[in-house]
């Protein structure tokens, strides 16, 4: 199981939001590249980066910061936030991004996502962000009438690498990952699932790792790392054993 330390970008700074609310951002640093290097030094081989401003704008807003991260981090970078057309996908892959996370466009233009998944094998991740079981889009500002499981099934045979499932109601609140809902989704789809939202400590990593056999590919964690509640090296060791 993969542990993805998260770097969320807002105005070029490293931040964490509470429940996806841009007005409830906590700033953890103003040097994203240095943060990426710190995660690498702790043993991380994967990184999850989100352009929060881009998620709302529908296009890149923290390009300079992302480019600095790509230059500094020796491992694989997974990037999301406002990537909604072919030019954006091609541009980021050309710069060295390993996987692209697509959320809003996956709901509104699924054929685009399927086309990209066929063109870049194992390069596209579909974000299934949920509020009360329904898919949310536009930086989580809008909630659709599409259930999470239905959204997941639309991409089972599309060639996407995995699904990234986030329980918005827990994101950034250290309430603990919604393991029940995440495992349920993994069992109901043939695609690997990455858990996100609410990780508060090592126990979340342990419980998720027990379900690697059910299709849990990885887990994204942010605030727990920044607040010192989760030791990255210990989390990586536990995940590796899974």
List keywords for this structure.
242 residues; TIM Barrel; 11 helices; 12 strands; 30% strand
Number of strands: 12
Supply the helix-strand structural class: alpha/beta
Give the termini separation: 6 Å
Share of β-strand residues: 25-35%
The CATH topology annotation reads as: TIM Barrel
Give the class-level CATH name.
Alpha Beta
Largest sheet: 8 strands, parallel, barrel
Arithmetic mean of pLDDT: 90
Helix fraction, binned, reads 25-40%
Count of the separate structural domains: 1
Please specify the SSE layout and strand pairing:
Blueprint: E1 2-10, E2 13-18, E3 21-29, H1 32-41, E4 46-51, H2 52-57, H3 63-72, E5 76-80, H4 86-95, E6 99-102, H5 104-108, H6 110-119, E7 124-131, E8 134-137, E9 142-147, H7 148-153, E10 162-167, H8 179-187, E11 193-196, H9 202-209, E12 216-221, H10 223-226, H11 232-241
Parallel strand pairs: 1-4, 1-12, 4-5, 5-6, 6-7, 7-10, 10-11, 11-12
Antiparallel strand pairs: 1-2, 2-3, 7-8, 8-9
Helix pairs in contact: 1-3, 9-11
Task: Describe what you observe in this structure.
The chain has helices spanning 32-41, 52-57, 63-72, 86-95, 104-108, 110-119, 148-153, 179-187, 202-209, 223-226, 232-241; strands at 2-10, 13-18, 21-29, 46-51, 76-80, 99-102, 124-131, 134-137, 142-147, 162-167, 193-196, 216-221. The protein has 242 residues and is an alpha/beta fold. It has one domain (2-241): TIM Barrel. The protein has an 8-stranded parallel beta barrel, surrounded by 7 helices.
């Amino acid at each position: 199981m993969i542990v993805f330390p998260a770097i969320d970008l807002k105005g070029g700074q490293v931040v964490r939001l509470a429940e996806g609310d841009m007005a409830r951002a906590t700033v953890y640093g103003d040097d994203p590249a240095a943060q990426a290097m710190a995660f690498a030094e702790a043993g991380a081989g994967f990184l999850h980066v989100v352009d929060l401003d881009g998620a709302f704008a529908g296009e890149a807003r923290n390009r300079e910061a992302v480019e600095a991260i790509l230059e500094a981090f020796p491992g694989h970078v997974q990037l999301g936030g406002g990537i909604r057309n072919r030019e954006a996908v091609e541009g980021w892959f050309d710069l060295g991004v390993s996987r692209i996370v697509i959320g809003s466009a996956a709901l509104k233009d699924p054929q685009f996502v399927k086309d990209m998944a066929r063109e870049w094998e194992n390069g596209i991740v579909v974000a299934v962000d949920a509020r009360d079981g329904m898919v949310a889009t536009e930086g989580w500002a809008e909630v659709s009438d599409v259930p999470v499981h239905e959204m997941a099934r639309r991409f089972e045979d599309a060639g996407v690498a995995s699904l990234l499932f986030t329980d918005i109601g827990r994101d950034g609140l250290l309430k603990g990952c919604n393991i029940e809902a995440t495992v349920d989704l993994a069992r109901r789809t043939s695609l690997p699932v990455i858990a996100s939202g609410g990780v508060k400590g090592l126990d979340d990593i342990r419980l998720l790792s027990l379900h690697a056999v059910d299709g849990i590919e990885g887990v994204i964690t942010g605030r727990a790392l920044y607040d010192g509640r989760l030791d990255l090296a210990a989390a990586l060791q536990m995940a590796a054993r899974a």
